[in-house]
Amino acid sequence: MPPPGDLPQQVARALAEDVGGGDLTALLVPPEQEGQATVITREPAILCGIPYVEASFRQVDPRVRLEWHVGEGDAAGAGQILFTVEGPARALLTGERTALNFLQLLCGTATAAHSFAALLEGTHCRLLDTRKTLPGLRSAQKYAVRIGGGHNHRMGLFDGILIKENHIVAAGSIAKAVARARQMGARVPVEVEVENLAELRQAIEAGADIVMLDEFPLEAMREAVAVNAGAATPVKLEASGGVTASTIRDIAATGVDFVSVGSITKHVRAIDLSMRFKCSA
């Protein structure tokens, strides 16, 4: 799976934020000193972030060499070696924090996505992420969601139309909002967020492509699936709002097509990693 196109810029910004005018502590190390380091995970995780780690070290010094012991998207157990790295000691010490920040965040995102996606196995329902991402790291986190087995919703406001409550109020009605989207000629999916069955019917009749069922109880979701199935032109249904590991399977069983979970990117917990350094002879 190709990494995001803005990866070099993300890494450069992260290094600039951390290193600034120079790593003063690394200057304590002789410039000719070589070093080696091993990075392990202290807990089970889905590995994600290899391209970010490699870019972090190599932007500091292209002489750094890495060897991976776990592949991108593979499961790693507690205590397992993820990779070894060697090269100029100053570069290893300077790049360590940025590289591990990316790896901890992306492993955490991929692991969370994998845990939710696994709960949907055997159903036709797919896991979607949201725009609730860490500022400046959206493409990185959405990449991690894909690595973990989830699917991306729209990347931003530019590649999909999601008509929500405030848009409906401003446009005058669901029908008017959808009609305006069609008049614009936008070649992107048109989705409408609804809060009840009456609004669902309006969205279907208006010609939406997808309808998001916001905070629907399970019984209401089942009714929504039935209403949609009986429509002349059914839409895709997405369930959203307050989805947890204990509820996602029941939600999928209602027959919806997608379940979106903002917590996999917004409430992500970093995976506990450790880098063990030693000087080369």
List the keywords:
4-stranded antiparallel β-sheet, 41% helix, 6-stranded parallel β-sheet, 281 residues, alpha/beta
Note poorly predicted spans: none
Q: What is the H/E string?
A: HEEHEEEHEHEHHEHEHEHEHE
Spatial order of the strands forming the largest sheet: 6-11-10-9-8-7
The level of helicity is: 40-55%
Q: State the major sheet.
A: 6 strands, parallel
| Anisotropy-based shape | elongated
End-to-end gap: 38 Å
Beta fraction of the residues?
15-25%
Query: What gyration radius follows from the Cα positions, in whole Å?
Result: 23 Å
Sheet/helix structural class: alpha/beta
Task: Let me know the number of strands.
Answer: 12
Number of helices: 10
Mean pLDDT value: 97
Descriptive report:
With 281 residues, the chain is of the alpha/beta class. The protein contains 10 helices and 12 strands. It has helices spanning 7-19, 50-60, 89-119, 138-147, 165-171, 174-184, 197-206, 218-229, 248-253, 263-266, and strands at 34-41, 45-46, 65-68, 75-76, 81-88, 126-128, 161-163, 190-194, 210-214, 236-240, 258-260, 273-279. A 6-stranded parallel beta sheet has the order 6-11-10-9-8-7. Strands 3-5-1-12 form a 4-stranded antiparallel beta sheet, covered by helices on one side. A two-stranded antiparallel ribbon has the order 2-4. The radius of gyration is 23 Å and the shape is elongated.
